Amino acid sequence: MALVEINFDGIIGPSHNYAGLSPGNIASANNAGAVSQPRAAALQGVEKMRANLRLGLAQGFFLPLDRPNKAWLEGMATDMASAEPHIRAAAFSASAMWAANAATVSPAPDTADGKCHLSAANLLTMAHRSHEWTGTLAQLKLAFADEQHFAVHEPVPPPYGDEGAANFMRLCPSHDEAGLEIFVYGKSGGPFPARQHIESSKAIARAHRLDPERTLFIQQSDIAIAAGAFHNDVVAVANERVLFTHEQAFEEPEAAYAAIRTKMPEAEIVIVPADRVSLADAVQSYLFNAQLVTLPSGERALILPTEAQANGRVWSWLEEHVAGNGPIRRLVPVDVRQSMANGGGPACLRLRVVADPTTVDQRFIADEAKLDRIAGVIAEHWPDSIAPGQLGDAALIEQVQQARLALLNACDLAALA
Ligand code: SUG
Fold first, then answer.
1. Does ligand 1 lie within 6 Å of residue 100's CB atom?
2. Best of 28, 232, 283, 288 to mutate for ligand 1, by most ligand atoms within 8 A of CB?
3. I want to staple 83 with a disulfide (CB 3.0 to 4.6 A). Which of 87, 110, 299, 300 is the partner?
4. For 365-387, what is each residue's pLDDT tens digit?
5. How far apart are CA 331 and CA 312, in angstroms?
6. pLDDT (tens digit per residue) in 29-53
7. 123 CA: nearest ligand 1 atom
8. What does pTM read for this prediction?
């Protein structure tokens, strides 16, 4: 079978809550202390996967990680009962749902050894995300165990922060042909942390055995990070030959576009001007945190959050683009509001892997029947709501752990327990 793009969505874990853990992520800060709805959140995620399957797209998933993370708490010389609230929240976070941050993926046509390379992200800038990689790596090693086709790498060592595919874009004539891999890094010094360090990006490019002639390192703009674009995928997204970007996404946009065009003359760069959609509107609506996909018909669609439809300036720009025969032909709003309230849109929830689906461990590949089964476990076991004051509650912790185990069993993935 040919190489296709498979979107692996992170199933939203039973401990999903709003703890305000990510400075620089406006939604996370604004919703700190709100009551979350883990069951509704996870079902929204399943419906997104189902809708994508029905569009004819290949779909996979990753399982929630074991939370609270007892090993991490032990390393911090504490436990859930006695930890300070911010440590307790960091141990309990369901943040692994945002699978775009799980790893950076270089498809086989781009690498010197013809394998698809995946590097788990260290996510070291935020405490609650810094301990995801152990569970993520275990899952990547299982899903992509076929060493003939995949190479799974450990994270880049500290102190260089890496947030995975959220700061990575790939342009290519079609998914199964060699592409241009673009790493987007930030520079620290602004009001909010720059999470992606250029040294991590360079290390990953070396580990993945990329051709330097088909690799670019581009700086994210300081003003985008200061406006709340804590990852590049909040202001830009690429698919095949199309780059869809906000005018202020990159520090030196003209130089960035020129470098892209030099390496890939057929690139189509769609730029949304700041006088039509401000950075504030882009961050509020998550217009760019969309899945830009090629449907089986060849038509390009943008799977974007309902928040983008609700923003008049954003929606009118998009409608004009579609009416004007722009490269994006179809707009597909999806409701992922529970995740959005923590700053995670449709694109955050998925990791793109270009591969032959038959070479992936089939337990991680979705079909309608499996999604029904997953939705059933969620409906039965996921907590209805979590208020911030409940995080240390022993009964809630027990429910969260049992809920995850029920899902692992339903997916024949008890090996991850
Ligand atoms: O890392 N939010 C995540 C959102 C990640 C979005 N991913 C991409 N853009 N690809 C983050 O900031 C909030 C958790 C809390 O506050 O409880 C959080 O971690």
1. yes
2. 28
3. 87
4. 999 999 999 999 999 999 999 99
5. 15
6. 999 999 999 999 999 999 999 999 9
7. 1
8. 0.98
